[in-house]
Amino acid sequence: MMRQDAWTEEEDVLLAETVLAFVKEGSTQLRAFEEVGKKLSRTAAACGFRWNAYVRKKYEEALEMAKQQRKKKKEQQSPERDMTLQDVISFLQTLQQRGEGQQEIEQLRQQVRMLEKEKEELEKQLQAVQQEYQAVMHILERARQLSV
């Protein structure tokens, strides 16, 4: 007696061929499981379980070859590029921070200029108040001398 959901040899072969092709092309096994699941009306999880529990053992050598072919293909496509996606993201974030830093510096420079002008005005006002104070003190001193 056979289970209704039992895997056939043809389904195992389709699963293996699809996984090997995806690995060879640089994609993931999970995507291969999703693809096979659609074709066989099974879940990606069922395909992944079948692959890991049974089929993978039969295709261990082929899987290693697919991985080597993927690596070779990747090296041929970009032999001079050593940057990873994370390197690119980091570089772009640094550029963005520099740009924001430049904007902040310019804003701070404008603020400094404004504060310098305000300081000059306040110094002029202080000087005027000091002169008035001296004048009042002089008047008070004269009034004191006259009253004595």
TrEMBL record:
Residues 56-146 form a coiled coil. It comes from the Bacteria. InterPro entries: Homeodomain-like_sf (IPR009057), RsfA-like (IPR014243), SANT/Myb (IPR001005). Pfam families: Myb_DNA-bind_6. Keywords: Coiled coil. Residues 1-55 form the Myb-like domain. This is Transcription factor, RsfA family. It comes from Anoxybacillus suryakundensis.
